[in-house]
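**Fold in tokens:**
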Amino acid sequence: MDFASPLTVRANWRGMAHRNPPLPASAAQSFLAQIVASKPVKNTELERQRAKAFSALGQATSATKINEAFKRLILQDNVTKENVTDCLHNHLRDLGVSNDRVKGALLQMLQRVRDSKGSGKDVVPALKDVLNAEVVPTVRPSDYVQRGAEQGWIAELSAQRALLLSGPPRCGKTDAAKWVAGALQELGFEVLRFSLVDEAERVLLDRRSNEVLVVLDDPLGSDLEVNSKAGQALRSLERLIRELAPNRRLIVAQSQEVLLAARSTDSLDKVKTGNLPWYNLGQYPSGFLLQVWDVQSKRNKVPDDVKTAVTSAIAAGELDVPAGVLAHVAAYHQNLQGTDVVRQAQSLASESTIDFAMTLCSSGAKEVVRALAIGSTAIETSADRELAFILGEGVELEMPKSDGILVFPPDNQFGDPITPPSYAKEPNFPRSARNILVNLEMHRVLRRKQADHFEFSHPYYRAAARAVVRQVVSMEKDDVLSAIRRGLFSPSPSTSAATARNLWWLHRDLTESINLGDSIVELAGIGLNWYFPTTRDLCYEFLIEVVKAEPEKYLKKLQYWVNSMSRIEIEDVVWDCGDPFFPAGREHSTLSFLRTPPVPNEAHVRQTVVKLRAGDALPNPGSAVEALRFFKAQPNQLESDVLLRLLGFSEGLIRAEAAYIWLLVERTNDDEILERLRRETHPSVVSRILNAVTKAWNAVSSDRKTKLGKVFKTHGPSQRDCAICTI
């Protein structure tokens, strides 16, 4: 055995250091002596300096320290470049880098090593920066308690491509879905979370090559939030499950009451969706609740006497509550005092969202919780700065005109630099409000989603926050309307979108309590002209729901709302400055000729097309728009695989332009594409489809006319009629 043998590891080495000092003490001492006696290999100045440095190092250390260092010296023999690359790929996967990002991450790290050579700088911080940017945090809840059925769920998800979980409120559906998703995340799946079926559909039907899993949380609405589109969402869900590709997975966590109502039945055993059963998470295995309480009491540092009393009550069946309720009891264990702990725990466990809303109000958290409820959703959150803005800090941005009249810039200077909306003065978060957030986080009502973003830790707390909004009195009417207006017309795309998504329940609840319904509808109408395309889309969807609920009151406004959306074109939007936005006062498409669209860079377009064909992640919207400008001039060059990828964008204007270009010329074998276009309800997409069919009609074959006629019949003959059909 030579000197290096103890330092050599097998080819399947997984990144572990040697457990024990690898060399015998005598060998380590011999190695140290050789270092001290170092001589230059060649008679050069560099070699002499190197030998001197080695000798000094040997004199300054010991054989024991050398041997400790050797625990981290790994040698591999007879390995190829491919072996090393595979090993590095496995290490990166173990660290949480997704499959489709591993190669890029490795190339970045190799470049950092090359850049560091000769600089004398430690390369490790640069490598850590790459890892921090590429590693995707696990979606698995840290305090999850397994029920024993998880491996069966994973097996079903692998075999059927979908897993359906249901049960009563606070039984742990979402955490169970995340735990299962985490298992597939470790296998390389990219995990995304949505609350609407159509959002999940665009991602899951997109032909990107990487493996994608979507967690769909209460797509029909929750027991705490009624969804008028539950039946339609359930039909879309059935269709989506049938169309899942082999590298796609879907987990649905749905509250049972809405599901049972949509199916007009009284038992989950009688419900199947996409021919798959729904698993009832309200039925707990023996000892499960005791394990949940043990974990939650430790996490929340519940005193031993309280922990013991509640444990005994659970074991005796005196406290039989959903798993999520035990987390709430543990978080508010300060309310459990004296000799009557069990009764107090029962009272706390049975606390309704309205009761807890009153607790939040009495603690002084009303305004902060109200701002969070208005400016965030289960998916979208607002940064601390935006919460401060909703609370009234900072100067409001100028609201757009609701009449759609174009306002010319001074001197008609359309060539001026166009910048995204921003605050005139940065809102500062009040110290008192920050203290309230700290207290809510301490009690597990809130948790940090990002460094400066809070989210509600459970739907129960979100529902309680909405109850806080609902309890507003007439004297607070202006304050609440101001908060909604600030959220909707925020310079933050996510806050604006979240507020727009919340308009439907704000309208319902505040119409009943303080008669704010008409004011909210008016804000939504103005929102059709706000900076962000997503905000406009969501305001439009809300207004369609309003027309459905009160046609006699709002039907006369429908045509104007439809026109406001359908007149928008892709060149009206700035796509290359981060999040897409409409430049203030310049959005009317009838004056698009005053702005010359950039000439597409064909080299960039080719790169974008190659990535789309290869199944890479969707490019940024700006690159997609540049490609569409190119294809608009040469529609015959747009191929079906590229078109299907473009239909995966969430931005309706991109899908609209892609559909328009595709339908302009004769096509064959595109039944899948035409079916996707028939499902579209976005007004801009529908408008462009109808324009393209009309324009191409006389230039296509009779067979093509038959197919286009079916598309036209779905969406025509007028935008107003199309909107009414969606109702």
Notes: The first strand starts at residue 162 and ends at 167.
